[in-house]
Automatic annotation (TrEMBL), chain A:
<dbReference type="GO" id="GO:0015424">
    <property type="term" value="F:ABC-type amino acid transporter activity"/>
</dbReference>
<dbReference type="GO" id="GO:0016887">
    <property type="term" value="F:ATP hydrolysis activity"/>
</dbReference>
<keyword id="KW-0547">Nucleotide-binding</keyword>
<protein>
    <submittedName>
        <fullName>Glutamine ABC transporter ATP-binding protein</fullName>
    </submittedName>
</protein>
<dbReference type="InterPro" id="IPR027417">
    <property type="entry name" value="P-loop_NTPase"/>
</dbReference>
<dbReference type="InterPro" id="IPR003593">
    <property type="entry name" value="AAA+_ATPase"/>
</dbReference>
<dbReference type="InterPro" id="IPR017871">
    <property type="entry name" value="ABC_transporter-like_CS"/>
</dbReference>
<dbReference type="InterPro" id="IPR050086">
    <property type="entry name" value="MetN_ABC_transporter-like"/>
</dbReference>
<dbReference type="InterPro" id="IPR030679">
    <property type="entry name" value="ABC_ATPase_HisP-typ"/>
</dbReference>
UniProtKB/TrEMBL annotation, chain B:
<feature type="transmembrane region" description="Helical">
    <location>
        <begin position="482"/>
        <end position="500"/>
    </location>
</feature>
<comment type="similarity">
    <text>Belongs to the binding-protein-dependent transport system permease family. HisMQ subfamily.</text>
</comment>
<protein>
    <submittedName>
        <fullName>Transporter</fullName>
    </submittedName>
</protein>
<keyword id="KW-1003">Cell membrane</keyword>
<dbReference type="InterPro" id="IPR043429">
    <property type="entry name" value="ArtM/GltK/GlnP/TcyL/YhdX-like"/>
</dbReference>
<keyword id="KW-1133">Transmembrane helix</keyword>
<dbReference type="Pfam" id="PF00528">
    <property type="entry name" value="BPD_transp_1"/>
</dbReference>
<dbReference type="InterPro" id="IPR000515">
    <property type="entry name" value="MetI-like"/>
</dbReference>
<dbReference type="InterPro" id="IPR001638">
    <property type="entry name" value="Solute-binding_3/MltF_N"/>
</dbReference>
């Protein structure tokens, strides 16, 4: 099986086991450049595991993964891979001992070997993009959840990735902050950044998704455009899931 | 009147000085005229190395504020012997209990420390007597003289630990028990002045010591004690110089001592150190008071500053070394199971389990017996202390490090890796700074504790603050003044490090929601 031509991200029969528990079961998915794909599914269905496999924070056990046409294996240069694929964690995981600016400038300085001034200028640019530049000198503990989320996004953007992975970026946010994150994602996609986002927020999903991937028990059940998924899901499991979410 | 008292009877200042000068000239003259006497085997590299515990005036003690300047009868004899053999004299001071192990380990060629000649000691070492003495029982002035040792039945008697008196008193107790009397209650203290202090405080009824020392002490004690009995122990008649067993060396040493006795040098030394003749006579007692002059003098003395500096140096060096070795140890212990991890677990258990003092004594006295490498001159007491406290402290520090590293959220490392940081960069820039904040308070705590543990090093002759204090107390009998001065030094050091802790903690304000802002701007 070969990666689809033009796909920035190609997943083929990808499986991940934790001992004898199958967390991901033969996942296949192609994502085009600049596309926004939202992954939905009940808790424990393997959404986070999938995202973590994509930048090899978790190595997969079988199947193949291609990014920009390059096959990702144990021998792949992880540092280059991670510069290509940014990840924003569900609970942000900002570095508490660094202020906002240093949080963002650390990886460019260490990984890209940028001089401090240049790394900070870069960081300021992305902090401005997510509208948080005013807090650059504050420490994470002094920020609200929504502000931390935006810093986490800026920190990942500072490595100027081509693919951004988001694990429940809206989990702890109020509706206003959620729409802020949606705006940022649309901006990023407009710049040609490919987005894969896990969420439980249905309105958010419908608002940003080009396609919805629905997962259950480590498997992809269906891949559909949002309009169709929310009105007319193809699988029984997706129907039940939607009913539960609305209820 | 004991034999020594008789010997000490005649002193007259000028007469003594003339005597010493004459004796020295005579000695030097003979030595220069004849071929130098054959050198015994315990003299190496042109140096006679003498070990002594300078807390037993007038035999061996520090006669001033410079703790390096050991004085007394023993030192005069050592000097005279070195001159006799035309060699250099090196004096090493240490705790009394360290003397014989050091002699056995080859760290000194000769022990001259006011030690009685005893058959049981002569089983392991050769002894050459150089001075007569007698064991005396001493009590506070005004106590009635005893008719015999049986009158001490049921009384408290203080003795210096490690000396032969406690063994002799135990034998006396057996005799008391055999006669159906209650035994004496014997308490042992590490230094002679503490033994005397117990009697002065009324905690002990009497003490066992030597007439020579009492003769010298009487001036400091202002007649507050007196000899109440001189037991007829024939074996407690001589002070001896000790060397490692060697018949040839012993003969040479005996010959040397005989020569010094014959040419009058011994007598001159004895006269020089005699104070007043009669220990049984009580002088007017003075009321004890706190002497501010002594206290401030100690505070500003070079000896105390040097002692404090050594205490600080030992503590800082040991702790830095401990931190350096405990950091990789903590990483291994937090990692996957392997042989190294099992080994390190045993290391931590061993060095946390064994008393620090035991480790110190082991490294200084026992290790050189297996590894001759550690007998060499470069292995100083300071290095031995540094080594053993580093090892000991690392076993505690590793637990602090481990807990601190484990307390950092593992998601932090994942976040670092996700940004493309290498393992080393993640440790250096993400995990260590956060672990440091957690480890700092317990680390400073451990350091302060270590700062005080350094006082153990006095046992192996490191002249740290407490050793200096004890030497000064032994010289002057002014307990309160010198203890207070030492306390001031310890407290000043501890408060300084608490201040450092406060300062450093301010750098960690990122963990404090309400203070983070002040530092950030
Ligand atoms: N390190 C691990 N070891 C063992 N099992 C794991 C591990 N990580 C995840 N799992 C299991 O894999 C399954 C998928 O977990 P995952 O975190 O991917 O779920 P999710 O879809 O993100 O759920 P949620 O919506 O609650 O975040 C779960 O059953 C989980 O228990
Ligand atoms: Mg999840």
């Amino acid at each position: 099986m070969h990666p689809e031509p033009g796909a920035v991200l190609s997943i083929r029969n990808l499986s991940k086991l934790y001992k004898d528990f199958t967390a991901l079961d033969r996942i296949s998915l192609d994502v085009r450049r600049g596309e926004k794909v939202v992954v939905l599914g009940p808790s424990g269905s393997g959404k986070s595991t999938l995202i973590r496999c994509l930048n090899r924070i978790e190595p997969h056990d079988s199947g193949s993964l291609h990014i920009n046409g390059q096959t990702i294996t144990a021998r792949t240069d992880l540092i280059r891979l991670r510069a290509l694929v940014g990840l924003v964690f569900q609970n942000y995981n900002l570095f508490p001992h660094l202020n906002v600016l240093d949080n963002c400038a650390l990886a460019p300085r260490l990984v890209r070997k940028m001089p401090r001034a240049q790394a900070e200028a870069l960081a300021m640019r992305f902090l401005q993009q997510v509208n948080i530049a005013g807090q650059a000198r504050k420490y994470p503990i002094q920020l609200s959840g929504g502000q931390q989320q935006r810093v986490a996004i800026a920190r990942a953007l500072c490595m100027q990735p081509e693919i951004m992975l988001f694990d429940e970026p809206t989990a702890a946010l109020d509706p206003e902050a959620v729409s802020g994150v949606a705006t940022i994602m649309n901006d990023l996609a407009a710049q040609g950044i490919t987005i894969l986002c896990v969420t439980h927020e249905m309105r958010f999903a419908r608002h940003i998704a080009d396609r919805i991937v629905f997962m259950d028990q480590g498997r992809i059940m269906e891949i559909t455009p949002p309009g169709q998924f929310f009105t007319n899901p193809q699988t029984r499991r997706a129907q039940d899931f939607l009913n539960q979410m609305i209820a | 009147m004991t034999p020594v008292m008789a010997w000490f009877r005649r002193p007259h200042a000028t007469c003594v000085m003339v005597g010493i000068l004459a004796a020295m000239l005579a000695g030097a003259g003979t030595a220069r005229a004849d071929t130098p006497p054959p050198l015994p085997g315990f003299i190496h590299d042109g140096a006679l190395t003498v070990c002594t515990n300078p807390t037993l005036p007038p035999m061996t003690f520090v006669n001033g504020t410079d703790v390096k300047a050991v004085d007394g009868i023993d030192m005069d004899i050592a000097r005279t012997l070195a001159a006799y053999w035309h060699v250099k004299l090196t004096v090493t001071t240490m705790d009394f209990t360290g003397l014989f192990p050091s002699l056995a380990a080859g760290r000194c060629g000769l022990v001259a420390s006011g030690i009685i000649r005893l058959p049981q000691r002569e089983r392991n070492f050769d002894a050459v007597a150089y001075q007569d003495t007698a064991l005396v029982i001493v009590a506070r002035a005004g106590t009635h003289p005893l008719g015999g040792m049986a009158e001490l039945s049921g009384r408290k008697v203080a003795v210096q630990a490690g000396t032969s008196y406690s063994a002799r008193m135990a034998r006396e107790n057996e005799a008391l028990a055999a006669a159906g009397h209650a035994p004496m209650i014997i308490t042992a203290y590490p230094t002679e002045e503490q033994v005397v202090q117990q009697v002065l405080l009324g905690r002990a009824f009497a003490l066992a010591s030597q007439d020579v020392e009492l003769a010298y002490r009487r001036e400091q004690l202002h007649g507050r004690v007196r000899v109440i009995f001189t037991p007829p122990y024939p074996e407690y008649r001589h002070f001896a110089l000790y060397i490692r067993k060697d018949a040839h060396d012993r003969a040479l040493l005996e010959q040397a001592v005989a020569t010094l006795r014959d040419n009058g040098q011994m007598a001159a030394i004895a006269q020089k150190w005699a104070i007043t003749p009669d220990t049984t006579q009580a002088l007017g007692a003075t009321a004890p008071a706190f002497h501010w002059g002594t206290f401030f003098g100690a505070l500003t003395s070079a000896a105390f500053m040097r002692g404090a500096f050594i205490t600080l140096a030992v503590a800082v060096l040991s702790h830095l070394t401990a931190i350096a070795i405990s950091l990789p140890m903590a990483l291994v212990l937090n990692g996957r199971d392997c042989v190294l991890k099992t080994g390190l677990t045993a290391y931590v258990a061993l060095f946390r389990g064994a008393p620090t003092l035991l480790q110190l004594l082991f490294i200084w006295n026992a290790l050189p017996q297996f590894l001759p490498f550690f007998r060499e001159a470069w292995f100083t007491p300071f290095l031995a202390t540094w080594l053993s406290l580093s090892i000991n402290e690392s076993a505690y520090q590793v637990e602090i490090n481990r807990a601190a590293l484990l307390a950092v959220d593992p998601a932090q490392a994942v976040a670092g890796h996700a940004l493309g940081l290498s393992r080393g960069q993640v440790y250096r820039h993400v995990i260590f700074p956060q672990a440091l904040r957690i480890a700092l308070p317990p680390t400073i705590n451990a350091f302060i504790s270590l700062l005080k543990t350094t006082s153990l090093a006095s046992v192996i002759s490191v002249q740290e603050l407490l050793a200096v204090t004890q030497i000064q107390v032994a010289r002057t009998f002014e307990f309160t003044e010198y203890y207070a001065a030492a306390l001031v030094y310890y407290l000043a050091m501890v408060f300084f490090f608490l201040l450092v802790q406060k300062r450093v903690e301010r750098r960690f304000s990122w963990a404090d929601q309400y203070r983070a802002g002040t530092h950030a701007s």
